[in-house]
Write a structure and sequence with these properties.
41% strand; 9 strands; mainly beta
């Protein structure tokens, strides 16, 4: 797989360091919402689907709070101390 898989293992606390606009934020449904600066935990690193290896465009699934998750590239995240 890609070397990025080790950049943010599952359980790592991260912050969004680039402007990323989403439309699925629970409090701003169907409206543009920039997640820049939000902090969360890496919940999954997508490397395979149904047992087959995949190269996901946005491999890091980050959970910000119970009703909000997002998928990101390694370049959009930074590790928190």
């Amino acid at each position: 797989m890609s070397d990025d898989a080790e950049a943010f293992p599952v359980g790592t606390r991260v912050r969004v360091k680039k402007s990323v606009v989403v439309y699925h934020h629970p409090e701003h449904r169907n409206q543009p919402f920039d997640v820049l600066g939000l902090e969360g935990t890496v919940e999954a690193v997508v490397q395979e689907w149904e047992g087959r290896p995949v190269s996901a465009n946005l491999p890091y699934q980050v959970k910000f709070y119970p009703k909000f998750k997002g998928h990101f590239q390694a370049s959009e995240l930074e590790t928190l101390p």
